[in-house]
Amino acid sequence: MKSFLRFIFALLLMFFLILAPWLFEKDYYIHLLVMACIYSMLAQSLGLIVGFTGQVSLCHATFYGIGAYISALLSLNYEMSFWVTFWFGGIGAALAAYIFGSIVLRLKGHFLAITTALFGIMVTLVLDNWVELTKGPMGLPGIPNPTPINILGFKIGFSSRTEYYYLALTFVFFMSTILYRIIHSRIGKAMLAIRENEEVAQSVGIDTMRFKLAAFTVGSGFAGIAGSFYAHYILFISPVSFTLSESINILVMMIFGGMQTFVGPIIGAITLTILPEFLRMTGALRLTLYGLVLILLIIFLPSGIVGSIKEKWSSSNEGK
Amino acid sequence: MIAVFFQQGLNGLVLGSTYVLIALGLTMIFGILEVINFAHGEIYMIGAFLTLFLTSIFGIPFLFAIPIAMIGSGLFGLLIQRVVFRPIIGKPMINGMLISFGLSVFLMNLSTLLFKADPRSLDSGFAHLNIRFLGLQITFERLLVIIIAILLVSILYLFIQHTKVGRAMRAVAEDREAAQAVGINIDRIHLLTFGIGCALASAAGSLAGAIFFVSPIMGWAPVIKSFVVVILGGFGNVMGAILAGLILGIVESFGGGYISYAYKDAYAFVILLLAFLLKPEGLLGGNR
Question: Can you give the pTM of this predicted structure?
Answer without folding.
Answer: 0.86
